Amino acid sequence: MRATGAAGGESVGLGTVGGRFRITGTVGRGNMGEVHRALDLQAAQDSPRREVAVKTVLRSRTGVSIDASGSDNAIARFRREVRIMRMLSQGHPNLTLLIDGGVDETPGGSGLPYLAMELLDGHPLADLIDEEPQLPVSWVASIGAQIAAGLAAAHTAGVVHRDLKPANVMLTGDGTVKVLDFGMGSVVDDPDQTRLTSTGVGVGSARYMAPEQFRAERVSAAADLYALGCILYELLMGRPPFSARTPFELSEQHQHELPPRLTLVRPDLPAELVRLVDRLLEKDAELRPENAALVREALVPLALAQLRRVPQARRPRVSSCLILAGTRLHWSVGLWLGLVRNHLGARSARRPPEEVHGEKRGAEAEVHACSRPR
Length: 374
Prior knowledge:
Elements: E1 16-17, E2 21-29, E3 33-40, E4 51-57, H1 72-90, E5 98-103, E6 113-120, E7 122-124, H2 125-131, H3 137-156, E8 169-172, E9 177-179, H4 184-188, H5 203-206, H6 211-214, H7 221-237, H8 247-256, H9 262-265, H10 271-280, H11 292-306, H12 328-349, H13 353-357, E10 370-371
Parallel strand pairs: 6-10
Antiparallel strand pairs: 1-2, 2-3, 3-4, 4-6, 5-6, 7-8, 8-9
Helix pairs in contact: 3-7, 3-11, 3-12, 7-10, 11-12
């Protein structure tokens, strides 16, 4: 997503959200709200957190408009969830840092929920997939390990993403992989809503939904692991495990069909990587890996073992503005550095959330951040 201001595309009049964040431009609009660039008026002029992203929440994940005049309980719950999200995101490098959030009740304010978070310098994983099909094993393992680490931290806190896909993963300029839009549905939807069906879900999300989601069964962390398996498969093959024109067709495929074998296209893939992806894509949630931390532990050795095997292929277009100097070698170095940060963050993910964050289990995590164009 690209921010636009008076100099291009849409322009946004200056306004202030929550009495603190002055809107300077629009980054993008999604199904649930709008994302803006803003200045944090409470941050020092030279602070790296001076420029932030602010998301105003207009609709729930189910498409229902947010009632700004809703019950005090709903508003109190939103504020509580934001507080927990902020503490969770500050404790892990693969979750976006949440700076503030609440309901804009300032004079002249919208009365709607908003979230302020770090403004990320990078591009969605979907962009890299479009440009570079069939990525090197070291890249796939490095990206997958960092996604798994972010999931492990959230799952430990009782949070399930429910909509993990390449568009909700960002590759930042220093090699860190960030999981985005984490738990937004839980923040603004009914607190008892743990089922997500294909009704009203676009094809983009349905490509990565677990079989149990299509059956409207209770969604657990295993659904996120299935989605991660879909992402790893796509990174290796250049296409998702299943493709169809409608969510209904995708539902049938995810529940009853097997994807083409990875080794049919890439016979040189490490056997342990193929086995891991196959396990992640099991139809039965009980047969998938026990947790995201184990997935990360399986991927890290694969990443480190092959980081020196950098193919001499063409230089990616997106990567030139994505990772360091823009070469494949620098890409690999950036991902290696990301793995180092990830390893440090994983220690926190293995600790009880009340010990790490001072909050009880049941936290709802992350929100959709946005990219800063270079």
